[in-house]
Design brief:
The chain is mainly alpha-helical. It is built from three helices and no strands. The longest helix has 28 residues.
């Protein structure tokens, strides 16, 4: 993100993004296989990556987001392999 736009973006979104990340991490502490929380956390990590200046920090947030996507795929695959309960 261009530096001129990044400052305004950070001013408007940083607190909300950080609060969202903290809340979703808490949800994952409670339920580690909560794939919807992982999906939203992935998106917030990508927003956070847009806020940082350092390419190393940006790459770190993007890797965390990509790792969550891989974990979501694993969880969904395991669920699809489990037999569905009969009513």
């Amino acid at each position: 993100m261009p530096a001129a736009v990044r400052g305004e973006y950070i001013a408007k979104s940083a607190t909300l993004t950080d609060d969202g990340i903290a809340s979703l991490k808490k949800a994952l502490e409670i339920k580690p296989d909560y794939d919807d929380a992982m999906a939203y956390l992935n998106l917030l990590y990508r927003r956070k990556a847009d806020m940082v200046e350092s390419s190393d920090e940006r790459a770190s947030f993007q890797k965390q987001a990509d790792d969550l996507l891989d974990k979501i795929k694993e969880i969904k695959q395991k669920r699809s392999e489990q037999p569905t309960p009969q009513a």
